[in-house]
Specification:
alpha/beta; TIM Barrel; 9-stranded parallel sheet; 5-stranded antiparallel sheet; 36% helix
Length: 327
């Protein structure tokens, strides 16, 4: 058995495979399924105090889009498929959600259950962060790059690096900050400067598609999109951030569907990888398959998981240097 252990945000994880925050981690049954599939951590569906954000989840819609932009209902996905969706935040009373996650984290054994917080009001976000800590949760994710923020009701979702410091000052928990937007590399560096223990790069982009038969927007509006095609984009964000902040702990997300994708992101500088869309489409068993595939790859290479972290990123050359090397 390959050595899968890694360190993220100062925490020792049994493997780099994490279930990312999404529709497949929005209740206790789903989170338990991800833990049973061997995830080293499960990031719960994000929450905040906004009623509008909760209502947005009740009106959410999801579709799979193939390489020709044909749309079908969500189900097991091919590698060339993308998940196209509009979504919101967890639709459960906050105090109840805190209790649910704290109980699940106590059950998690050698894994972690991680609450995810999206900001509406800063003061309320601070209160929520402190409530998670008081309940005994061991790790917190703050999402400051939610792709749906621009389309949400006014005031429902805030983004931006300025949100990190108030949360960092409020709690002693290991804090992971998820970034996105137009310049995730700059936001990642700024989040680390503001006290993040690790940064997740990067949340899905917003897209737009039309149904060529009806000549109307797919899902009726703009929507977030992600798929395996995004792996090279995420890896670039990771490698560029590692160059800018070699001391920073990074987590990859957006695009990873299997164990070899996880290996790609580790080589680019990630210490762990969040799988989200594939768990939504293919179920929690995708986490077990990814872990098995990564273990097989490590065995083939004769290395431990932590030895991969940043190995390829650290070998990046300039265009000029690469040209000289290959003449």
């Amino acid at each position: 058995m390959a050595d899968l252990a890694v360190t993220v945000a100062g925490l020792e994880l049994k493997s780099p495979v994490i279930a990312g925050s999404g529709e497949a981690t929005q209740n206790a049954e789903q989170i338990r399924a991800c833990l049973a599939a061997g995830a080293a951590a499960v990031v719960a569906k994000s929450t905040n105090e906004s009623a509008a954000a909760k209502a947005q989840l009740r009106a959410a819609a999801y579709a799979l889009v193939d390489s020709d932009f044909n749309v079908r209902e969500v189900g097991p996905a091919a590698r060339e498929d993308s998940l196209f969706c509009r979504s919101g935040l967890v639709d459960e009373a906050f105090d109840q959600w805190v209790g649910t996650l704290a109980a699940l984290d106590r059950e998690a054994g050698d894994a972690y259950v991680v609450p995810s917080l999206i900001v509406s009001g800063v003061d309320e976000a601070v209160r929520m962060a402190r409530a998670f800590e008081a309940a005994g949760l061991r790790w917190l994710e703050l999402n400051i790059g939610a792709p749906h923020a621009a389309e949400a009701a006014a005031g429902a979702i805030r983004t931006g690096v300025d949100l990190v410091r108030p949360i960092r000052d409020a709690v002693a928990l290991p804090l992971t900050v998820k970034v996105g937007g137009l310049d995730p590399v700059a936001d990642a560096a700024a989040a680390l400067d503001a006290g993040a223990d690790a940064v997740v790069l990067a949340s899905r982009a917003q897209g737009f598609l039309s149904d060529l038969e009806t000549r109307r927007p797919v899902l009726g509006t703009f929507a977030a999109i992600g798929g395996a095609w995004a792996v090279p984009l995420t890896c670039r964000h990771l490698a560029k951030t590692r160059q800018a902040r070699p001391d920073g702990c990074l987590v990859g997300t957006n695009g990873a569907r299997n164990g070899r994708d996880v290996a790609q992101m580790l080589l680019a500088g990630a210490s762990a990888v969040q799988l989200t869309s594939v768990v939504i489409t293919d179920g929690a068993d995708a986490l077990a398959r990814a872990t098995t595939e990564l273990s097989a790859y490590l065995g083939e290479q004769g290395v431990a998981a932590r030895e991969l972290v940043g190995e390829a990123a650290d070998a990046v050359r300039t265009y000029e240097e690469a040209s000289l090397e290959h003449r």
